[in-house]
Description:
Helix content of chain A: 10-25%
Strand content of chain A: 15-25%
Number of strands of chain B: 20
Distance between the termini of chain A: 22 Å
Shape of chain A: globular
Number of helices of chain A: 4
Shape of chain B: elongated
Strand order of the largest sheet of chain A: 1-6
Oligomer: heterodimer
Largest sheet of chain A: 2 strands, antiparallel
Structural class of chain A: alpha+beta
Radius of gyration of chain A: 14 Å
Amino acid sequence: MMRKPMRVDDILNNDVWDVDYEPHIRVDTTKCRECEEKPCLLLCPAQCYTLAGDEVLFSYEGCLECGTCRLICPHDAVSWDYPVSGRGIHYRFS
Amino acid sequence: MKEVGYKFDVIVVGAGPAGSAAAYTLAKKGFKVLLVERGRVPGSKNVFGGRVYADPLRDVFDGFDEAPIHRWVTKERISLVNGEAMTSFEFHERKRTSFTTYLTELACWMARKVEEAGGTVLTEITVDELVVEDGKVTGIRVGDEKVSSDVVIDAEGINRLLLERAGLVPKLEVRYAGLGVKEVIKLSKKEIEDLFGLDEDEGLAWLMMGDVTGGLPGGAFLYTNRDSVSVGLVVMLGEAVKEVREHISRYVEALRLHPLLERYFRNGRIMEYSAHLVPEYTWPSLPHRLYADGLLVAGDAAGLLLNLGYNFRGVDYAAYSGYLAAKAVEKAHEMGGMTSENLSVYERMLEESFIMKQLRKFRNAPKMRENGRLYTTYPEVVNSVMDQLFHSPYEIPKVMEAFKRAKDGKIGWLDLVRDLLEVVRSV
């Protein structure tokens, strides 16, 4: 199995989260419509940003809380918070 | 906002290496210390490449030899990779200078030391903001509650949202950040020792340069833990934004599937996939002020990390900066209070410590890493020379002949000399 490509979701499935009820990241996706580069699609390591047609979809559940999207967004569309008390990614072996 | 009745001498935000080192040092001296951590346990938000230098931690923590150490790094391997060829340089000496571990485990151990020293450690507490009154940081706000202290040590990590919100630092720029992504792959202890030629508690730190990063400026790494390996890469975010061609996880996967590397992982399974930002400042000065009235900043939040390309120093720098922040609080206490003026001693202590001395010395290293030839041309040239020397049975070239053939059309003498000087000057 290790010698074949794996889906990003299958790789991420090895991680543990305590998902918050409220998203800790909010994305103003109206700004994404104007965005030509969309670097979030490739650089968010958890692939939280995906494309459906022309629309950028964002889901916070698998977020690794690295902060990359906040820095690279060319249109400042990402407002980023730390998840509340104990929520979010729970690294055990990193 | 209601105020919690109890007041602390010191509140430390973030139970990573910097925060725990600061809290431990102050608790040991009898200060009333509160260490708050947003994760479920200390370390659960921490990620590193894989290796820590022991001496700075030994200076900070008593009983360091009981820390959760996986393997002592006795084997250093640096490889230039291009295509399916790799030229490596290996250094093996059984000295116990740096070790591998899970940072999540190490951070847990550090926070336990804080408790043993009499500090209070609270997990699952997300700080919403630093409370600033009349220009002085007087505590933290958690939800609608305020917890007060004479001084706050901010060790919140590289994203430093609290400092930004308080207007103390600008937003981190992409060009000052690297992105690290890694997989931790489970193998047996014996497999690791057999595969990498290691004795029981020996470890390997392996840095790879060249097209193993899929053309992104940066490097790839592999560290052996007790019964797993950490494999991944660190790319310069400013460049990656322009040059990334497929999802970043595919670049890590390309390492796992690389024809010369997959043999190490084929019997393993992924235990964890993680990502974290890395500070990549162009020195020689501190990136921003690390003290204010009632506030000190340590660790990644302060941007203290050295990336030499062949070696990284983050965890020990963080812990030692936390230790110095604690020492500065002690000094300021003796001088009469946590004013900006009294706390400014922290920056002087940092300047005189190995941290700033090394960061200043290697200030050109980040610029050197922007030179694309180091990632592409040189690994290619070196591997081509080796290929000619070892795979030409009827017509062995002289080394210089092989080198000329390898470099022709790729790089001129002038650029070569210039790059050589740059490397010599930088690292």
